[in-house]
Each structure stands twice: as structure tokens, then as C-alpha cells.
Amino acid sequence: MNNETTTNNLILSSYFSQDVSKKALCVIMPAYNEGAAICNNLLNASSIISEFCKDYIIIAVNDGSKDNTESEIIKASEKDSNIAYISYHQNKGKGGAISTGVHYANSTYTAFLDSDLELSPSMLEEFLTQLEKGNGDIAIGSKLHKESKLNYPAIRKFLSLGYYLLLKLLFRLKIKDTQTGIKLFKTQVVKPICESLSTYGFAYDIEILAKATKKGYSIIEMPIVLNFSRDEKSKSRFSLKVIIRMFKETLKVKKAVKQY
Q1: Over 80: is that where the pLDDT of 163 sits?
Q2: At a CB cut-off of 8 Å and minimum separation 6, what does 178 contact?
Q3: Residue 162: how many CB atoms within 10 A of its CB?
Q4: What is the pLDDT of residue 157?
Q5: Whole-number Cα distances in Å, 36 to 71, 101, 205, 239
Q6: Burial tier of 41 (Cβ tally within 10 Å: 0-12, 13-18, 19+)
Q7: CB of 140 within 8 A of CB of 221?
Q8: What angle do CA 259, 61, 132 make, to 5 degrees?
Q9: pLDDT, tens digit, for every residue of 179-221?
Q10: What's the pLDDT at 37?
């Protein structure tokens, strides 16, 4: 069993108590009730990333899961020293998990990657290439990129387009898709932004990207391959109540960005 450190209600793997050198890449993978697949997904992600980056760390963040996600993440970290973990017992939302991971990132670049692996970490190779060439400060996956290949429910395509139009109206962002779960940042860009987030809910992505734009950082959109793998129940989770909450969060972010 990995040695653990408990601080401020966080359970940290021993990696964070070591005097480790700065990594080239840190990949943050938030997880909530992903116990059935998270161990294998973390190991698979690490195997894929190791093919194009030798100097990396994955930070898996257990966001107050009610199942065995924590123990499965720990199991993965025991099998692969390139996997570290952070765990806490109160659910903060995906933005909270991401922000916690960013706080502990010590790397040149920091990526966000959904833990279900519907988006392969292999795509981060080209994201890295583009940033290393100086083509941007942030690279984000975009479902609306003309070269993206999507196996994706029609209702979600419709919502993505509608949300893009709303964001264009409110924020005048030049990017088309803020919500896809694979992104890469220069760490020095994303760290201070994550320290000032006003929301940890659905709209945290928008807040990060809108604040980065306001600071003058450049964002490039990248094509993705998306293989939707969730069951029918999760496909229909976008109820009217959820859509209203999304809209309210977005308005809250609009105010926070204006004051940033």
C-alpha cells in the first residue's frame, strides 16, 4: 500500500511528500463513482501517455465518490509509479476536482482528461506538439472542429451547438467548444486562473477559457475522436432542470470574468 498523507481533509499519495523534480506533463483525471473502470482506465492512460512522453505524472482526483473509486485509484497507483492520487470525501464537482489537481501540479504543461477515456489520451501528443511549437498557450479538443470524428447522440450535438451560440453571445469567444473533456495548458497559465474560480460546476471550463482569453492567452482548437460509451440512462440526463442550472452558472461566470 502506498504511504498516504492527510492534510486539510485531503488524502494524498506519497508522491506529493517527495522532493520530485518538475515534470514535463501532468495529466489530471477527475473521477466520481467510477470504481468499476477507473483502475484499468488509469493504467491504460499511463501506458498510452508513456509512448509519447517519458517525463509525466497522472494525478487522479477522487471527487468524494460513494463507491470504491478511492480504493481502485490507490490500486492503480500501486501498480504504476506514474500515477498519483488525491482523494476527499465531500463531492465538489468536476471543476473542484480539476482545481485541486492543478494546485498540486508541478509541470511545464497540465492536461485535463475525462477518466472514462471516451477521449483517448493519445490525442495529447499532437496537443503537446502544437504548444511546444509556440502555436498557442492552450490547446483544447473541439467536437465542432471540422475534422473531428464523433460517435455521439444527436441531442448532445444539438446542445453543443446551442451552447456555442450562447457563449458567443455572452463572451464573444472565438472558440466553438468549451466543454470537451480533453485540454492542455501551459501550467503557468492555468494555475492562477484555477485559484480564482467562481464555480466548480458545469461552467468551470468556460470560466477558465474566458479568463485566459481576457489575459491575452491564445487558444487553439484541435480535432478529436469521440466514442460515446455511456448507457441510455446517462444519455438522457440533460433534463430541463440541468439546462436551467447550466444557464445560471454561465451567467455567474459572465459576472466573474467581467470582474477578473
Answers
A1: no
A2: 140, 163, 167, 205, 206, 209
A3: 11
A4: 67
A5: 11, 22, 26, 25
A6: buried
A7: yes
A8: 70
A9: 899 999 999 999 999 999 999 988 899 999 999 999 999 999 9
A10: 97
